[in-house]
Amino acid sequence: MKFIVLVFFSFLSIPLCISQEWNGHFSFNNSIDTSIGNGKIFTASENAIYIYSTSTDQLEEISTIDGLSGDFISNIYYSSNFNKLVIGYENGLLQIIDFSSDSVLTIYDIIEKERSLLIPGFNSLKKTALEIGALGCGISGSGPSVYALSRGLTKAEEVASGFKNVISRLGIDYDIYISKINSKGVRKSI
């Protein structure tokens, strides 16, 4: 029995362009958050930061090419004292741009991962709250309080009911409070 093996070679060459000059294309139209300091205006779009210098009238862009994660940005804060920009993402990731050293520090699971081990049922509470439709759920400070943010009283009551179901199975004492978010911020009482 004979076998015939056919081997095909292609002499077609495919040009490959390797360039150090990458370009990013990001929207200027969808501003998420803004922070101001040291004569600069920092504006975040979904996945890029724009820095406008009021003294030089120059616009700089920071994007995934420069080390940003590429996830959706939710908040930014610039510290004039430390010359650092803190970027918060919708998925909980934090990045800190240090302009003094031109570096980007990425911080995963800031404290929740370790602290959640000390709160019985935390992962179940969080999962329940998010499944019901809470905007977010986390640990208040260093614990042991757990919070959930909801849009409207009805949704908050549904989340509270879900929390009660999870906690009552654990057999621990608990209190649940539903409150509006204070839109005026911290105030000094007299």
Number of helices: 3
- Shape verdict: elongated
Provide the CATH top-level class of the largest domain.
Answer: Mainly Beta
Helix-and-strand structural type: alpha+beta
Q: Strand tally, please? A: 10
Average pLDDT confidence is 81
Number of domains: 2
What profile does the largest beta sheet have?
Answer: 4 strands, antiparallel
Order of helices and strands: EEEEEEEEHHEEH
| Proper CATH architecture of the largest domain | Beta Barrel
Uncertain residue segments: 1-19
Query: Major sheet: order of its strands?
Result: 1-2-3-4
CATH topology (level 3) name of the largest domain: Thrombin, subunit H
Q: Provide the β-strand percentage band.
A: 25-35%
The whole-angstrom Rg is: 25 Å
Can you give the helix content as a percent range? 10-25%
The end-to-end distance, rounded to whole angstroms, is 102 Å
Describe the structure.
This protein is an alpha+beta fold and 190 residues long. The protein folds into two domains: 33-107, Thrombin, subunit H, CATH 2.40.10.480; 112-170, 2-Layer Sandwich (Alpha-Beta Plaits), CATH 3.30.70.890. The protein is 17% helix and 27% strand. It is built from three helices and ten strands. The longest helix is centred in the last third of the chain and has 18 residues, at 153-170. It is elongated. Residues 1-19 have low confidence and may be disordered.
